[in-house]
Amino acid sequence: MSFLNQLNSGKFRFYWSILIGIITVGLFIIIQNASNWQDITPETYAKYGAPYAKDIFDGAIWGMITNSFVHKQLWHLFLSVPLFIFLGILFERRNTALFFILFVAISSFVTSSLQLSMTGDPGIGLNGVNFALFTYLLVKIKPEAKYGKFKITIWVGTLLALTLSILNIFNDWYNFGTTTILTGFLFGLIVAISQKRKFIFYSFQGIFWAICLITLFYNPYSSEWNTVQGSKAFSKGEVDKAEEYYLKALEIHPRNYAAKKNLVLIEIDRLQDRAYYAHSNGDYSTARMLYIKILNLDKYNSWAKKNLDGLP
Fold this sequence. Notes:
Elements: H1 3-6, H2 16-34, H3 42-47, H4 53-57, H5 63-66, H6 74-92, H7 97-119, H8 127-140, H9 150-171, H10 178-194, H11 198-217, H12 223-235, H13 239-252, H14 257-280, H15 284-297, H16 302-309
């Protein structure tokens, strides 16, 4: 008997869903205290388990799992954690402790990965995991079972989540996590149907993992992925290549602030080279015009200010 299952031996029943729920609440309190219950910085979220897209594409893949246990708003925490514990207890009564932990971890990774791929944001919170638990239990709970009436609750929850998903698609409300919900729905459904059919089970798990890993390492349709690749190219001195990535990122998502900012930096770098050449060769009128262009892009550029003031 494994250590995880020994905890449930005898009269004592240990539920991992309760422990994970308590940890999630504790993490929320720690994050809020770290920011004095005010606006929380991206660095704080990254430190406590929810790295942003750039960090994930840079290698912080662990964040695809831990981000599910991070919440921003108190109301979101109150909705997610009790539901997770309730569904988790029902799930654990039908499966081993190890299977439950793996289900939670993998459903978090899968839903976060596809959310990141589709929207450029891995999202946070237990939405995807909860929905995976919902649909798993929807299939597994039989009408004649002790908790058969719970199916009504699951159907209501499923209908509500699908309705919100449809609204999200038409209104671009990505902060709720449309992709996370739909992926959780599909993941929980497939696991429940294929759990006792090993070939189908492992085949679909392989497909899920392949899609998720590929999108993390190669995803030209993601604005954030292109931005990260642009930053890497720029750091290597491949300016033209970096510019291509940034332009592609803006084509996918025109409001990508990082891509816009980095394109401006590339333009400033090119203007500086031209201004230096003109100034060095005595073409002061051209140099003046280029210094002014640089200051229009970056009014605090000390190099341009100093050289502009030094023109005859």
